[in-house]
Amino acid sequence: MEHRPAREFDFELPVGYMDDDGRVHRLATLRKMTGHEEALLADRKLRHNGGMLVTELLASCLRQLGELKPVDRQVVSQLSSADRNYLLLQLRKITFGNELETTYVCPVCGETSHALQDLDELPVRNVNGGGPPKIAVELEDGWEDKDGEIYTTMVFRLPIGTDEEKIASIIRDNPSRGMNALLARCMLALDDMPSHRREALGTKVIGDLTMGDRARIEKTFRREMPGVDLTQEIECAHCGRSFQTSLDLTSFFSLQ
Length: 256
What we know:
The chain has 256 residues and is α+β, with helices and mostly antiparallel strands. It has helices at 35-42, 44-47, 50-61, 73-78, 81-96, 161-173, 175-186, 195-201, 204-208, 211-224; strands at 8-18, 24-31, 62-65, 99-105, 112-118, 124-125, 135-144, 150-156, 187-190, 227-228, 231-235, 242-246.
């Protein structure tokens, strides 16, 4: 009998999806992409909203998640960005293979370098225990309210797919404001400030922070964020200088 190659593969998510009963589902079954997903990638409306595109791709290819089968779009949109990025990586690998041709522009000399990335080499940080972790950041300068009170501790939840979808247009037009909007959506606490007051402030808190404190938030997220580490250390083939960049997820599904 002719051997039939596998078209579905199982992966354990770095974080997992917690349902309404508190159960965490981490074993995901993905199928290879087909012409249906190629049509999604070519959809102009979806290409203008990366978060929605990822949701549609994963909802189409995710056959099972723990005890959940089928997996609907609402569940996919509630997955953490860490899990969504991990699933995108695995979807790319099972469909096109482990090697990815990448292009980088050196920030020093401006020349373009090309590299062949082995996607199997990307490190993955998993969450130990059940449920998504929270990320606490201690600010040096803090946020000052109109009464002169200083707040120095921020607590964030992990971003999820819904956040990606909501801020897509903002981050496309202005990445800094898009990041403000994302952090504001994910902020769970600002010291002991009542939640209704914190939520009413919207993005003002994030926008008012000093650049040093904003850098501390970014550094803390980079250190504690679970999932695939897309950070790359590149040596320019032209000037020899090394620089740090991030692997571009939008190139994962190029048919070129």
